[in-house]
Amino acid sequence: MGIAEIIRGVATLAWLGAIGALGYVVFNAARGRRFGGSATVVVGVALLAAVLTTVAAGTVFIEPNQRGVVTSALAPKGYRDEILQPGLRWVIPFAERVQTYSISRQTYTMSSVDQDGQVPGDDSIQARTKDGQIVFVDASVVYSVDPDRVVSLHITWQNRYEEGVIRPQSRGVIRDAVSQFGVEEIVSSRRAELEALITDEMSKGLASNNLVLEDFVLRNIRFSDEYAAAVEQKQIAEQQAQQARFVVEQRRQEAEQARQVAQGQADAVVIRAKADADARIIQAQAEAEALRLVSEAIQNNPDLLTYRYIEKLAPNVQTIYLPSGQQYLIPLPQATTPTTGAATSAA
User: Fold this and answer.
1) In the chain, is it the N or the C terminus that has fewer CB atoms within a 10 Å radius of its CB?
2) Would you say 135 and 245 are in contact if contact means Cβ atoms under 8 Å apart?
3) Weakest-pLDDT range from 143-152, 170-179, 198-207, 287-296
4) Quick one: DSSP state of residue 84?
């Protein structure tokens, strides 16, 4: 409770006391009783009540979030040019009156949801896009009263600025801005651009009416039922086409994978065959080299062949008995030394 309200309360009590005292005096006078000084008491209480009432009428306390406009019967223009700043202020009692305005942020919402905005029911803004489609916009305007231009606001709008400025300005600006965009643009790639355009135009419109736009919120954009159904069908078709492309890509990848597997198997067969061929070549070369070495050994030592023959014939036989004067039962291999050119010439 402010000091002005306290003074008014005390003044009211004083008036009640004066009326009570006067009634008491009248009652006793009617019964033939007289009290010395009773009239003085009544007059004194009445004067106190009058003084307090006058003081209360001239005392105004302006809250920190308020500014005051003084309308005056004594001023030539009917109001003071000075704005009452926060604090305890004094005006001429009964000749001047103070109208306070909040400079705090306020929000005006227009929504399709019942009880969500200032107007009950569906209060969304119906607008038509550049390509002729109807959309419904939910929005909130966050604004405040310009603290330096409260007097001008009071002269022009008083307390009617929400219905007289905020609502018509915002609805008109939103409709004009939506008409510059296609329906798909305002819900996808250019929504931020739409919101920025509305904010700029709203700021200019409110400033010309002594208000400040603090923020603009584009809450929701919805289509008409017909267009929403068409968009849904389009999205379904696009999803089906995307699914088909996915299937085709999947089949292509499977085919590529199968081709790579087959190529890998073929490469493995080639590598394996080449390895086998190289192994056979190496083995043949080794065998040929072994035969060459054996041939050289036999040529250099002819008895080696006879020794190896006997060794393979009977590894466990240590003694062989032969009839006298008879040949071997099995003819021994004859090792012949290749004749050289010099020997042939000597013969």
Assistant:
1) C
2) no
3) 287-296
4) B
**DSSP code string of 180-215:** TS-TTTTTTTTHHHHHHHHHHHHHHHHHTTTEEEEE
Strands (E) in the chain, as ranges, are: 59-62, 66-72, 87-90, 96-102, 106-110, 125-128, 134-145, 211-223
Burial class of residue 241 (count of CB atoms within 10 Å of its CB; 0-12, 13-18, 19+): exposed
Tell me phi and psi for residue 223, to 5 degrees. Answer: -95, 170
Q: How many helices (H) and strands (E) does the chain have?
A: 9, 8
- Range of lowest pLDDT (251-255, 299-303, 339-343): 339-343
Q: Give the predicted TM-score (pTM) of the model.
A: 0.59
pLDDT at 289 over 60: yes
Q: Strands 87-90 and 59-62, how do they pair?
A: antiparallel
**pLDDT for res 291:** 78
